[in-house]
């Protein structure tokens, strides 16, 4: 592989649990009840996609832009509250190793750009990425392949020359539809949810299993 494209939530940032908590809090503020298990299938997808489906099912007259904005406000408040948010084990080390080996890196996340930049800067890897894309700025989120096609184009490589690291079903599907080589991180957060990562070309239980040399030889 000539380049690597990272997802963020669940791959770089150990954030899936608090994202679900905030989504549920947002829904409750608008009078929509939901359980954590209802949110899990939307991992890797945009907030717009998530809230569009839940508002539609509730049959409530709620503007999608409004409820999405409220979720982003609550997320920002959570991040700024000082509560500890950790990187996924091995993620930062892998990013820095790939960067040291001069392997071009892109970030392709469904999160809003402000959150992406906040986390990458917090963990000291923002400068490692030559391309940073937010799916929230695209018409459709994963599993639509647009974000991965755009990432490869901006990196200057064919999709098949780029390895994508993903942890969610929607992300794996998006990567394969784009023509990327996909490495699936079997995130323990989804252990009881049976996330379907079977479409990936390779699966690891920890990012500590990966190295720059190994990825170059794929």
UniProtKB/TrEMBL annotation:
Matches recorded under InterPro entries: HAD-like_sf, HAD-SF_hydro_IA, HAD_2, HAD_sf, PGP-like_dom2
Highest taxon above the source species: Bacteria
Pfam family, one: HAD_2
Keyword Hydrolase: yes
Hydrolase listed as a keyword: yes
Record key words, sorted: Hydrolase
A GO molecular function held by the record: hydrolase activity
Cited Gene3D superfamilies: HAD superfamily/HAD-like (3.40.50.1000), Putative phosphatase, domain 2 (1.10.150.240)
Protein name per the record: HAD superfamily hydrolase (TIGR01509 family)
Source organism of this protein record: Pectinatus brassicae
């Amino acid at each position: 592989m000539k380049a690597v494209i990272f997802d963020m939530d669940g791959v770089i940032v150990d954030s899936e649990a608090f994202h679900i908590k905030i989504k549920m809090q947002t829904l409750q503020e608008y009078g929509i009840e939901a359980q954590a298990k209802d949110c899990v299938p939307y991992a890797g997808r945009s907030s717009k996609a998530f809230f569009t489906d839940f508002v539609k099912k509730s049959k409530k007259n709620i503007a999608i832009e409004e409820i999405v904005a409220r979720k982003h406000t609550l997320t920002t408040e959570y991040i700024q509250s000082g509560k500890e948010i950790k990187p996924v084990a091995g993620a930062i080390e892998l990013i820095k190793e790939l960067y040291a080996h001069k392997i071009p890196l892109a970030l392709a996340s469904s999160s809003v750009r402000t959150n992406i930049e906040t986390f990458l800067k917090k963990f000291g890897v923002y400068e490692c990425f030559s391309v940073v894309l937010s799916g929230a700025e695209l018409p459709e989120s994963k599993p639509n392949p647009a974000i991965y096609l755009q990432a490869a184009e901006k990196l200057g490589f064919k999709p098949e020359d780029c390895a994508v690291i993903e942890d969610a079903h929607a992300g794996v599907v998006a990567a394969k539809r784009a023509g990327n080589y996909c490495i699936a991180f079997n995130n323990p957060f989804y252990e009881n949810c049976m996330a379907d990562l079977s479409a990936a070309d390779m699966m690891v239980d920890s990012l500590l299993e990966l190295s720059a040399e190994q990825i170059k030889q794929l």
